[in-house]
Amino acid sequence: MLRQEFLRMHKKLRENATEAEEFLWLALRENQLDGYKFRRQHPLSIYIADFYCHKLKLVIEIDGGYHKTKEQIILDKERTDTIELQGLKVIRFTNEEVLLNLSNVLN
Fold it and tell me: Where is the DUF559 domain (predicted)?
């Protein structure tokens, strides 16, 4: 992917966040996770993480319904494996988990 395409995709993802991403971002931005600083739609090699905390080396991904398809499960595993090779921890939540049980997500 060319750098300009990557930057356009990054901008589009930030502008078109899902309801669950916005909901979690508000909580993270208000330091509801022990004061750790998170970035949203943060570039990591060839991927863009939904949320990233440098200090914790943590990536949080919020998965919509299409992540349940066989093809997407395989792609998500490849993505997670690639990110974890960078020494980062990846945690995945569904939209429903974020919207219906934010306190558990933040714990």
Answer: 9-106
Q: For residue 74, what is the domain's CATH number?
A: 3.40.960.10
pTM of the prediction? 0.81
C-alpha count within 13 angstroms, C-beta hemisphere, residue 51: 28
| Residue 72 vs residues 25, 31, 36, 51, 89: alpha-carbon distances, Å | 24, 31, 30, 19, 20
The whole domain housing 76 covers 3-106
User: What does each of the 107 residues of the chain score in pLDDT, given as a tens digit?
Assistant: 555 665 565 556 556 688 999 999 999 988 767 889 999 999 888 889 999 999 999 999 999 876 677 888 899 999 999 999 999 999 999 999 999 999 999 88
